[in-house]
Amino acid sequence: MERRAPAALLSVLFFGIALLYLPILVLIGYSFNASPLVNVWGGFSTAWYGRLLHNRQLLEAALLSLQVAVAASTCAVILGTLAATALVRFGRFRGRLLLTGMVNAPLVMPEIITGITQLLLFVSMVQLFSWPHRGFTTIVLSHITFCTAYVTITVQARLQSADRSLEEAAMDLGASPARAFLEITLPIIAPAIISSWLLCFTLSLDDLVISSFVAGPGASTLPMVIYSKVKLGVSPDINALASLIVCAVGVCIIGAGYLMARADRRRVLEAQIAGHPEAAPHA
Amino acid sequence: MKSTWRGGRWLIILPPLLFLLVFFLIPFVFAFKISFAEAAPRVPPFTDVISFTRDHHLQLSLTLGNYRYLLTDEVYGVAYLYSLRTAFFSTLICLALGYPMAYAIARSPKSAQGLLLLIIMLPFWTSFLLRVYALEGIIRDNGFLNTALLHLGLISHPLRIMRTSLAVYLGIIYSYLPFMVLPLFATLEKLDPTLLEAAGDLGSTPRRAFLDITLPLSLPGVIAGSMLVFIPAVGEFVIPSLLGGPNQLMIGRVLWDEFFGNHDWPVASAVAIAFLLLLVGPIAIYQYYNVRQLEA
Q1: pLDDT at B1 over 50
Q2: What are the boundaries of each domain within chain A?
Q3: Engineering a disulfide at A180: which of A35, A170, B16, B239 sits with its beta carbon 3.0 to 4.6 angstroms away?
Q4: Do B16 and A171 count as a contact with CB atoms less than 8 A apart?
């Protein structure tokens, strides 16, 4: 079959892509508008970007969000990898159904419900144990919860498709299961772990609803500050901030995708060379 | 061989199990409990459901008032139906737009597929809140669309899109379209092209071949994509709050207002529990198809 999509299909595809990208491109355009009025073009200016550096509220919120995102994604990657290992490698065990349910449910649970229930938990915990104080700790705990779900699903898929014979060979040669896992399996699932860390990082950085519930009066993450500013009306410095975030994320994702594709290709090549020395390309 | 893990097994199983138990499942128990409390001007703002009397007797003070309130105040019913309707029609439109997109990618040369998928995925990685804000820049009264149309002389007054249902639909379609395209692509890509060739050789028109072969085989993708759009759309808060007006009452917004506006935590808990029970149906269907797909 000729692998070519008909013109009608392609035009829908390009219409869809245009729909996805037009708002972002227009927003980046607005961010360079010297005029604070959105419908008047006052010339090219980077003034709004300069203003960001002097906005303490935004900078503090951005710092808090970055700290939360690093802490939450790192913990979630550990918990999620453990959960995925248990679900893929351990067959039947007590609590398997419970664990399966609890890693899948956060993916379909409306954020607003997760947020409200977690706040009620934290409030009740404070009554019982005087811990945790609302702020950084509660935001991180709630972000770990939904991030763990994403990590588990991603790593699980990679583990299922990973070749077990290498790990079994290592164990036949006397490696303990833990050592075989760390030295053989972990490098194989590393791309899934890295990409799920990145996914958690962006999800955490972006979360508005759950953070709003659990943050308490003292702490504000970046999305909370952005939301309250946007709710009040147009603010040109948010255009600049949004453009920066969107471009930074875009560059990171494309870069990470490129690096991982390259690492994957090299791994496949190495495996081929190891298997068939005669197939090695001449350097 | 599995037995060699035995010693360390629980070291691996227990941390995620306990964490999710405490921070995901048990919160619902507290929400359920507090949905039977009454709002009170104290910290935290509700009465105790379980308390001890002076002579150390356990005392349960439950009220069904919150649930009765949900049934009598029509805001909740209206918001629930509006959320369902909006989510349903946005899902249909996403499907109508996403299916041809996924099909076009699946039939593109292999070398272009990766790039096209990256283009579809990229917005999913960038901030959801900021994308909704970016859409507002297009559709507001003095936004990009109206400025362009006025400039071209196609309209004489700005179109009113913001604070209407149309804005909410646009917001949901714009935000969730990638969720529809990806699972559809995953099933369409696996489709064996020789099946279509065989149908063609046997005299079937392309249209018939599509209806008899492609469409039924891509049904798991249709269902997975629809659920990925429908479920978050039903509980959506950011889109109706930023793009909708007072008439675009979705259940997520009502919940938010009940909590942050009225500070009525027990009623908010009752709304959450009721919403959860009304969502369990769709989630169960989703999981059922998910498991069946994995087994296939």
Answers
A1: no
A2: 20-54+239-275, 56-233
A3: A170
A4: no
The C-alpha angle A218, A222, A226, rounded to 5 degrees, equals 105
Q: In whole angstroms, how far apart are CA B190 and each of A169, B106, B216, B218, B220?
A: 32, 9, 13, 9, 12
- Tell me the pLDDT tens digit for each residue of B112-143: 898 899 899 888 888 889 999 999 989 988 88
Q: Give A-chain residues touching B87 at CB under 8 angstroms.
A: none
- What residue segments make up the domains of chain B, in order of their start? 73-263
The CATH code for residues A56-233 is 1.10.3720.10
Q: Which burial class, exposed, middle or buried, applies to B46 when counting CB atoms under 10 A from its CB (0-12, 13-18, 19+)?
A: buried
Q: Name the CATH code of domain B73-263 (choices 3.10.180.10, 3.30.420.40, 1.10.3720.10, 2.60.40.10).
A: 1.10.3720.10
Option in B9, B242, B268 nearest A230 (CB) = B242
Task: Tell if the CB–CB gap between B286 and A108 is shorter than 8 Å.
Answer: yes
pLDDT digits (tens, 9 = 90+) for A246-274: 888 888 888 888 887 787 788 778 877 77
CB B197 within 8 A of CB B263: no
Question: Can you say whether residue B86 is alpha, beta or left, with left for phi > 0 and alpha for psi between -120 and 50 degrees?
Answer: alpha
Q: Do B30 and A95 touch (CB under 8 A)?
A: no
Q: Which residues pair with B51 in a beta bridge?
A: B59
- B178 in contact with chain A, both atoms CB, cutoff 8 A: yes
Region of poorest pLDDT, from A14-28, B4-18, B77-91, B168-182: B4-18
The pTM score is 0.89
- B60 DSSP β-pair partners: B50
